[in-house]
Amino acid sequence: MLLQPQWAKEEARQQKPQPPQQQHTPQQQLQPQQQQPQQQQPPQPQRPTARAAPARLPSGQSPAPTLTPAAAPGWDEVPPHMHSLERCCAAHQRADHSPSSSSGSPLEAELFALDPAAAAALLLHWAPQSRPFQAEQLARARPLVAALLPALRRGAVEFGRQQLADVAWGLSHFDAVRFSALHGASAAAVARYGQHVDDQQQQQQQQQQQEEEQVQQQQQHGDHWSAEFCEAMQVPFRVLPCALQDLRLPDFLEELGPALRRDVIYLDGGARAVEEARLTGWQSDIGATFKYSGKEMAPLAGGLTPHVAAVRDRLLLLTGQHYDSVLVNLYEDGKCGMRYHVDPLYDAWTPNTAVVSLGATRQFVFRDAADHACRWSYPVSNGDVVEMFGDCQERLQHCIKVERRARDAGPRISLVFKQRIRHADGSYAGM
């Protein structure tokens, strides 16, 4: 029998009971707001039209996914007073300031005692709740997440592939990478990594120096909790939620929209011509073209546009890779997706790729090229980054799942950053 602590009972008396809401796990398909009549219908953003500059949306970000592992193993063993991360943080803070507090709060002890499946289910519930958190709120949540780690580590040897992926995804919301993302990338840091900065950025270097040192200290001394579970997965990719959460979809629609187009591509070895569902564009700082499915894209004149270049510079700090080109994809609604595929390298591109999501939440799925039943599924939301490396394009395929209805998802842009192979003499492969 699950016992509810006194602090939870007191809070429950002060609040009106709320009806339960049906929610979903990261590995399940996200359901639209239209299927939840008890929630107020959010205003639908205006959809951009093909071959035209998309109109500015009322909001640059889709709502954060509300994911509750109601069907996940162990969720029934999670006490109701643990469901709200914000309330748990408040209770933990009160216990820390209590005169009788010595080593750890009662809530930490309860979390420590959860079995692995319950700890994993609770982590999946807490992770999306943390998306709006700022650094101070996130710092208050970290001791509670740390209390789950022993159970998660015990369960790692028995977790299946999706459970390991879910735990790594959940922990990424709370570890050092998330703290660094909250601070953003400074011009001084970009300069120290060998990138050129303009005069205005150089003038800002002194003011940003202190913030950059704080970010570096956090990266050096912070815990990368998700890393050990990513390593246990033994896959050539990682998913970084909230890494660039401050980006706004309307800014990119305005900047990129006029250059996006819908092309005809050729499938089945060129035997079948079809019109692409998504709109695409191509940018390159080195003048490289890009080929796939029978079409070749010339780069936009002038290299990377300002917003795209700023994202590229921030990815340098996040991934350690300098990307020189980017494929822009606009998925206009939920019926616009991308079937399973691999990104062509053509002996011209390195395997290092970073996919930045802007706008609506969509399901990003990897599957083993040799065993299609072996899959890893993630809800990617505004500001999330998927990094692919090593033999990812050889071992795995990936896709953006099509929703049941067009209105089930709003517009989403993905920026697929690529890196051309560069020879010792400074020349680029195939150019």
TrEMBL record:
One of its GO terms (molecular function) is dioxygenase activity. Its EC number is 1.14.11.-. GO terms for biological process: DNA alkylation repair. Residues 322-421 form the Fe2OG dioxygenase domain. Keywords: Oxidoreductase. Residues 21-39, 63-73, 200-220 have a biased composition (Low complexity). InterPro entries: AlkB-like (IPR027450), AlkB-like_sf (IPR037151), ALKBH3 (IPR032854), Oxoglu/Fe-dep_dioxygenase_dom (IPR005123). Residues 1-79, 193-222 are annotated as: Disordered. Pfam families: 2OG-FeII_Oxy_2 (PF13532). Belongs to the alkB family. This is DNA repair system specific for alkylated DNA. It comes from Monoraphidium neglectum.
